[in-house]
Amino acid sequence: MVSKSSLRKHLNQARQSLSPDQVIENSRLITEAISPRFLSGQPHHFGIYLPFGNEVDLRALLTRHPNGYIPSVHEQSMQFQAWNPGLEINKHPLGMMQSDFIDGLKRAHLDVCFLPLLGFDALGHRLGMGGGFYDRYFEHNSETLLIGVAHDCQQVDSLPVDDWDVKLHAIVTESQIITP
Fold this sequence. Notes:
This protein has about 180 residues and is an alpha/beta fold. The protein contains 4 helices and 11 strands.
């Protein structure tokens, strides 16, 4: 089987090859699919990421639905902070955009979390950037619905899986919702 590092390189190139217009259109389609399926009804507390590197942009969800949270990382730790438009956002050394990490912040209760990824397969396996932040954060998760979001070009037939890799409950792309 192909190594995770070579898959990351290949899938990152595929995502980077998308035009800005493709990313905008895919993000619109994915956001429209997410709202009725995963955020309708009772108020949901949900986590999303701030996009970089041609990731699917879900920021429109923050204006349409209350109770959004965004991740911040520091060293090996990750936390989710309540979103508000006045939150100061900075670029992390790893490239992602985030608010400042708050030591001692109480763990947020998330009903659903939308995870970025480099690759996925139809079985719900996710290949991230390699930092393991989401895997560690949701290691003992039994309450949060984990939804991967990606462009169709990020799907592969199968991924190498380690014991610590967190499995997704669903994946949403511009053309499909996969529920393994």
